[in-house]
Amino acid sequence: MISKALTLCSLILTLSCTTLLAQSPIGIWKTIDDGTSEAKSHVEIYEQGGKLYGKVIKLLASEPDAKCDKCSGDKKNKPVLGMIIIEDLKPKKDYWAKGSILDPENGKEYGCSIWLEDGKPNELRVRGKHWTGLYRTQTWYRVR
Fold first, then answer.
1. Are 77 and 47 in contact (CB under 8 A)?
2. Do the beta carbons of residue 53 and residue 45 sit within 8 Å?
3. Is position 93 within any domain?
4. What are the percentages of helix, strand and coil residues in the chain, rounded to 5?
5. Are 89 and 99 in contact (CB under 8 A)?
6. Residue 27 pLDDT class (50, 70, 90 cuts)
7. Which residues on adjacent β-strands are paired with residue 113?
8. Domain of residue 105, CATH code
9. Do the domain assignments include residue 62?
10. Which domain holds residue 98?
11. Terminus-to-terminus CA distance in the chain, angstroms?
């Protein structure tokens, strides 16, 4: 009897954790090129100090030793693989915002917000916003 109860509790806990993870942007996401619709990279989104960050963990459409030659500051000429491209996203009601995202192709940094669409826990909307008020929204797909 106790064994069955423990098995049931374990199953409920596993299902609860899986559901919570599916409602969170934490995980690994496949990015898609806006122009070609080809998969470009895998970005791991993780939490640190109550904020979300995103790091390139796999390059799919470029050389594995690609450098951010158009970046400025401490990221100039650094490898894209392993680079943190999303920084300081703060939780809001049902999304994360007021952070930044770097486009390694052009070296520009934009304001950033991300969210999961209702009913689509495996699709992440990633919005980069220019200081002029223009923005671009991409859909990234959950790898795990």
1. no
2. yes
3. yes
4. 15, 50, 35
5. yes
6. very high
7. 127
8. 2.40.128.520
9. yes
10. 25-142
11. 35
Give me the mean pLDDT over the 51-63 stretch: 94
Between 22 and 20, residue with greater pLDDT:
22
Q: Do residues 85 and 56 lie in contact, with contact meaning Cβ atoms separated by under 8 Å?
A: yes
* Total residue length of the chain: 144
Residue 10 lies in a domain: no
Can you read off the two tokens belonging to residue 21? 């993870």
Number of domains in the chain: 1
Residue 129, SS3 per DSSP: strand
Q: 59-66: which pairs have CB atoms within 8 A and are 24 or more residues apart?
A: 60/30, 61/33, 66/104
Residue type, 3: S
Residue 7 covered by a domain:
no
Q: Which amino acid is at 112?
A: C
Q: Residue 5 above 70 pLDDT?
A: no
Worst-scoring range by mean pLDDT, 10-19, 64-73, 111-120? 10-19
Closest CA to 115 of 59, 55, 52, 58: 52
